[in-house]
Fold:
Amino acid sequence: MGKEVITSDARRLGKVRDIGFVVDEEGRESACVIVDVGGGKVIDVPVSYIKAINDVVLLKEDVEIPSPVSATVASGSPSSPSVEQVTSTVSGGVESATTTRSLATRVGFEVPRCPKCGSALAYIPSKHEFYCYSCKEFVKVPGDVLAKVPRCPDCGLPLSYIEQYGKWYCYNCRKYVEVGS
Structure:
């Protein structure tokens, strides 16, 4: 984290903020680095674009920096970016599923779960749907459950509960969110 990202023509692109996964339209995952390009914008750079990593991250292909997309809540339907990232590296301890469920629900929120396997679902903003990474499929969340899922205070989109860390995460803003009582 924090390494400079340099394009194939020796221009500074930004700094590595995190490592994650990109989910395409068919629900396939591929690894990426999340690069802070300044001005509050971050982009996902597929690992296949990277030529070398040492003191800096050197790209073998140019990366297009998309125009900023801001999520707004208008009449209950937020807009969202076309690419979604799922964070895979976060420092912290691992808690049991029982403990994390009680932490998530003790403040009146409900963790949306896959009806097939019981795993916590991730909200994918580009699809406006929840996704089960265990079953590798999109899942329709009932309205009564959706009403109890906390929303990001910055973009208004539903948060995803990361059981491994016992925290709520916004995939649109790419950050953990403290959820109060």
Summary: The radius of gyration is 17 Å. Residues 12 and 57 are 10 Å apart (CA to CA). The chain has a mean pLDDT of 73. Residues 4-59 form a domain with the SH3 type barrels. fold (CATH 2.30.30.240).
